[in-house]
C-alpha cells in the first residue's frame, strides 16, 4: 500500500505532534513528489533456464565487464545526479559530519615502531595528507629517518591509489612495493633502491599485493592473476634485471575453489605458498636459500581439513581442525610434517573455546582464544608449561595479535580496542603477563571515553538460539525508554567475526542520541566454528532471521524506538540487508547497503565472475538443484516483489573486483520498478573506486557522511551544531 501524505509525515518521525505541528513540518520540508524524478532503467528481457526453471532478468544488460558502455555509464551518472539532487538540502549537514569525523583523526599519526633485521620500521602521516609515509631508522629509534616510500607523492593526480604489502630485501637495500591506481585489486610491483632512492627498471604487472624475497636478494616470488576472474593462481619467480616475460611459473593452482597467497617464515628460512578454500587449506614450502628448487607440500591437502603452520627451529607448530571443530595445536618435526600420525598435541580441542590465532617465540607460545564470544590472550612457557591468561576490562572488545616479527622477543604485542576505547597497542611480558601500553590512538575534537557506555547482551532468536549483541551509546543521550534512534550493523558470512572495536565516525551518531548495535549473527564465528556452520549453505537463512530477531529484541528491550531503527551492512552484509528488507521491510526506517552481494544465483552460476567457484562451499553450487532452489529462495534480487520497502541508500564502486557494480545497479532498478511506496531509494556509485570505497584516510569519510546524513535527514534533523540530539 502506498504511503499517503499522512503516513509520509509519520515516517519522518513526527509521531506525537499536533495537527498544527504536522502542517508546519510539511511546509518546512518538501514532499518527495516535489523532488526530481528517479532514473528509470530500460527493460531488456534476458531469459535464463536452470533445472527446468525459467527466470527473466530485465536488467542483465547493465553488465559491462569493460566498464565503458555509454548507456551503462550514463545510467550510473544519472543515478548519482539523482542522489545528489535528493540529498542537496543535506549538503551542510554532510559537511558538518565530515568535518566532525575527520576532526577526530590524529593529523600527525604514526604507528608504533617495529624492530626487524637491524631497523625500526614505522609509518607516519603528515597533517592534511591522505596517505602514509613509510620510513625506518637504523639500529635505534634516535637514528636519522630513512623515508622508504611517500605514498602521497605516488598518488598525486590519482583519484584512487593503494599500496600493498611492503617487502624489504634480506640485505635491507631494496624495497618491493605493489601499487593499484584503479581499485580492481590488480597490482603492479615496483622496486626501489633504498641506498640511492632510484627505481629499478623491473615492473611486475597483473599481480596480487604481495612479494616475497629469496635470500639471494635477487629473486622475488609473486602471484600472477587471472585476467577474467582476478584470482591469483600462479606463483611466479622473477630475477631482478630480467623482463617479466622470462619469469617462471613455480606453482599453478588448478582448483578454482582455492585462493593462493605467499609469505615468508619469521626466521627467514622458508618461502611459503598458502592454499585456502572455504573448507580446506594447506601450505607448500621452499628453502629461501635455494630459490631455484621446487616447492613441496608441508602436508598434502585434504577435503575438510584446514591447517596452518609456524616454524620454530626444526619443528612446525600446526593449527588444525583435524578431529577438532574448534581447532587444536599440534607439533611435529619438519621432516615428519607430511605424516599426521606423528603430530603431537600441544593444545587439545575444546568444544567451548575456539583457538583463533597463535604465534611463537624461542621459549613461549602466545594464543588468541575465543570463549563465549570473547577473545582472550593466553601465554604458555614451552620449557616449563607455565600457563597464564591476560585479561582486559571492557565489557566487550576486540583483541588480536599485532606485529611480532622477532622470535627472541620477551613480550608479545597485541592490538586492543573496544566500542569506547580507541585502538591501542600493548606489549604483554611473556613471563608475567604484565601489560605495557605502547600507544593508544588520540581522538581530537573533545572525545572523552567516559561519556560513553558499551554493553554485551544476548537476544533469543526464533529457534531459541541466543545471539550476542554489542551496544554503545552516549550516557547522557540514552534513555532506556524506547525513544532513541538505533543503527544496527552486521556481516554474518565466511566465519568472519565483527568484534566490537572503536569507530570514531560512529561518535557523530552517538552524540546525536543514537544507539549503535553490532549483531553477532550466525555465519560469523563469534560463538565458535559451529556458529559459522549454522549460518552458511542450507543454514544461510539463520543469518537473516537472527538479524531480524535482534532488531525486534532491541526494540522490546527499549534500546531503540520502533520507528527509528536503521540497518547497515556491506558486501555479504549487503546481501543481509537485501534479504531482511524483502522479509521484514516494515522494521526499518532506513537501510544502507554498501557494495551489496545481491544477485546471488546469477553470480554463482557464472564462473567467469571473480570469487564464484571459491565460494560454492559458502553459499552452495546452484548447478545442483537443491542449492539452486535454496539460494533462489533468499537471493535479494530474485525476491524483490511488489511491496513497500524502507528508505534505502545503496552504494558501490565502478571498479569493484569482489561484488561487481552491476549487482547493486540491477537491484536498484528492479526495486524502482516494483516497490509500492514513495520512500527514498538512492544509489551512489564511486566512479573511481572499488570494493573498499575511496582511498585515503580523509576522503573516505565523504561516503560515511552521506550515509549518516541519510539517517539523520529521515529523522528530520536540521543539522545545527548547537543541538546535536535527534528529537
Written overview of the protein:
The protein is 18% helix and 32% strand. Among the domains are: 337 residues, 3-Layer(aba) Sandwich (Rossmann fold), CATH 3.40.50; 140 residues, Methylamine Dehydrogenase, Chain H, CATH 2.130.10. It is built from 14 helices and 38 strands. Helix 4 packs across helix 14 and helix 8 packs across helix 9. The strands form eight sheets. Strands 7, 8, 9, 10, 11, 12, 13 and 14 form an eight-stranded antiparallel β-sheet that branches. Strands 31-32-34-33-35-36-37-38 form an eight-stranded mixed β-sheet, sandwiched between helices. A four-stranded antiparallel β-sheet has the order 3-4-5-6. The two termini are 28 Å apart. The longest helix is centred in the N-terminal third of the chain and has 17 residues. The radius of gyration is 26 Å and the shape is globular. It is of the alpha+beta class. A hairpin with a 4-residue loop joins strand 16 and strand 17. The N terminus is likely disordered.
Number of helices: 14
Percent of residues in helices comes to: 10-25%
Record field, number of beta strands: 38
Parts with pLDDT < 50 across at least 5 consecutive residues: 1-33
Assign the CATH architecture of the domain at 35-102 and 446-714.
Answer: 3-Layer(aba) Sandwich
Largest sheet: 8 strands, antiparallel
- The name CATH uses for the topology of the domain at 35-102 and 446-714 is Rossmann fold
Regarding quaternary structure, how should these chains be classified?
single chain
In CATH, what is the class of the domain at 35-102 and 446-714? Alpha Beta
Amino acid at each position: 500500500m502506498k504511503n499517503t501524505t499522512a503516513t509520509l509525515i509519520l515516517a519522518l518521525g513526527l509521531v506525537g505532534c499536533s495537527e498544527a505541528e504536522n502542517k508546519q513540518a510539511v511546509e518546512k520540508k518538501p514532499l518527495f513528489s516535489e523532488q526530481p524524478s528517479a532514473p528509470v532503467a530500460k527493460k531488456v528481457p534476458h531469459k535464463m533456464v536452470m533445472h527446468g526453471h525459467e527466470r527473466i532478468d530485465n536488467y542483465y544488460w547493465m553488465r559491462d565487464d569493460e566498464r565503458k558502455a555509454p548507456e551503462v555509464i550514463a545510467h550510473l551518472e544519472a543515478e548519482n545526479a539523482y542522489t545528489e539532487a535528493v540529498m542537496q538540502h543535506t549538503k551542510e549537514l554532510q559537511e558538518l559530519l565530515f568535518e566532525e569525523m575527520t576532526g577526530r583523526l590524529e593529523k600527525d599519526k604514526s604507528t608504533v615502531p617495529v624492530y626487524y633485521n637491524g631497523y625500526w620500521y614505522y609509518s607516519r602521516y603528515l597533517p592534511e595528507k591522505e596517505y602514509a609515509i613509510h620510513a625506518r631508522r637504523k639500529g635505534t629509534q634516535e637514528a636519522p629517518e630513512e623515508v622508504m616510500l611517500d605514498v602521497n607523492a605516488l598518488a598525486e593526480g590519482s583519484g584512487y591509489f593503494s599500496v600493498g604489502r611492503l617487502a624489504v630485501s634480506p640485505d635491507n637495500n631494496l624495497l618491493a612495493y605493489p601499487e593499484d591506481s584503479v581499485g580492481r585489486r590488480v597490482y603492479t610491483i615496483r622496486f626501489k633502491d633504498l641506498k640511492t632512492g632510484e627505481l629499478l627498471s623491473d615492473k611486475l604487472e597483473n599481480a596480487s599485493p604481495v612479494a616475497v624475497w629469496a635470500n639471494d636478494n635477487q629473486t622475488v616470488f609473486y602471484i600472477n592473476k587471472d585476467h577474467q576472474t582476478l584470482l591469483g593462481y600462479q606463483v611466479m619467480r622473477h630475477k631482478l634485471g630480467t623482463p617479466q616475460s622470462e619469469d617462471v611459473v613455480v606453482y599453478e593452482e588448478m582448483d578454482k575453489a582455492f585462493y593462493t597467497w605467499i609469505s615468508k617464515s619469521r626466521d627467514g628460512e622458508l618461502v611459503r605458498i598458502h592454499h585456502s578454500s572455504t573448507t580446506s587449506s594447506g601450505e607448500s614450502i621452499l628453502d629461501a636459500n635455494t630459490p631455484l628448487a621446487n616447492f613441496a607440500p608441508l602436508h598434502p591437502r585434504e577435503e575438510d581439513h584446514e591447517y596452518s603452520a609456524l616454524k620454530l627451529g626444526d619443528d612446525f607448530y600446526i593449527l588444525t581442525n583435524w578431529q577438532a571443530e574448534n581447532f587444536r595445536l599440534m607439533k611435529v618435526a619438519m621432516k615428519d610434517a607430511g605424516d599426521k600420525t606423528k603430530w603431537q598435541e600441544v593444545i587439545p580441542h575444546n568444544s567451548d573455546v575456539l583457538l583463533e590465532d597463535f604465534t611463537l617465540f624461542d621459549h613461549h607460545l602466545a594464543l588468541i582464544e575465543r570463549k563465549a564470544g570473547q577473545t582472550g590472550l593466553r601465554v604458555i612457557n614451552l620449557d616449563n608449561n607455565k600457563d597464564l591468561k591476560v585479561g582486559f576490562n571492557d565489557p566487550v572488545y576486540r583483541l588480536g595479535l599485532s606485529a611480532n616479527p622477532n622470535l627472541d622477543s620477551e613480550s608479545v604485542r597485541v592490538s586492543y580496542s573496544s566500542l569506547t576505547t580507541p585502538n591501542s597497542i600493548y606489549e604483554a611480558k611473556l613471563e608475567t603477563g604484565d601489560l605495557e601500553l605502547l600507544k593508544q590512538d588520540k581522538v581530537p575534537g573533545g572525545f572523552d571515553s567516559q561519556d560513553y557506555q558499551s554493553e554485551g547482551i544476548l537476544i533469543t532468536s526464533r529457534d531459541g538460539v541466543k545471539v550476542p549483541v554489542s551496544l554503545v551509546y552516549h550516557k547522557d543521550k540514552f534513555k532506556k525508554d524506547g525513544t532513541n534512534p538505533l543503527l544496527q550493523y552486521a556481516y554474518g558470512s565466511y566465519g568472519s567475526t565483527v568484534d566490537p572495536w572503536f569507530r570514531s565516525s560512529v561518535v557523530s551518531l552517538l552524540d546525536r542520541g543514537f544507539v549503535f548495535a553490532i549483531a553477532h549473527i550466525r555465519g560469523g564465528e563469534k560463538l565458535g566454528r559451529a556458529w559459522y556452520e549454522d549460518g552458511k549453505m542450507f543454514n544461510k537463512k539463520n543469518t537473516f532471521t537472527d538479524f531480524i530477531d535482534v532488531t525486534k529484541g532491541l526494540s522490546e528491550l527499549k534500546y531503540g524506538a520502533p520507528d527509528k531503527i536503521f540497518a547497515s551492512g556491506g558486501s555479504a552484509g549487503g546481501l543481509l540487508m537485501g534479504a531482511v528488507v524483502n522479509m521484514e521491510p516494515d522494521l526499518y526506517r532506513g537501510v544502507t547497503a554498501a557494495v551489496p552481494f545481491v544477485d546471488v544465483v546469477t553470480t554463482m552460476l557464472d564462473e567467469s565472475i571473480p570469487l564464484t567457484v571459491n565460494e560454492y562451499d559458502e553459499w552452495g553450487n546452484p548447478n545442483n538443484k537443491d542449492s539452486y532452489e535454496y539460494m533462489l529462495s533468499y537471493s535479494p534480487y530474485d525476491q524483490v516483489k511488489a511491496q513497500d520497502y524502507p528508505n534505502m541508500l545503496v552504494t558501490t564502486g565502478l571498479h569493484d573486483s569482489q561484488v561487481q557494480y552491476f549487482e547493486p545497479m540491477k537491484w536498484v532498478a528492479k526495486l524502482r520498478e516494483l516497490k509500492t511506496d514513495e520512500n527514498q531509494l538512492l544509489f551512489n556509485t564511486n566512479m573511481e573506486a572499488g570494493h573498499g570505497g575511496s582511498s585515503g584516510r580523509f576522503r573516505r569519510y565523504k561516503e560515511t557522511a552521506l550515509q549518516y546524513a541519510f539517517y539523520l535527514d529521515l529523522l528530520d534533523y536540521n543539522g545545527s551544531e548547537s543541538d546535536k540530539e535527534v528529537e
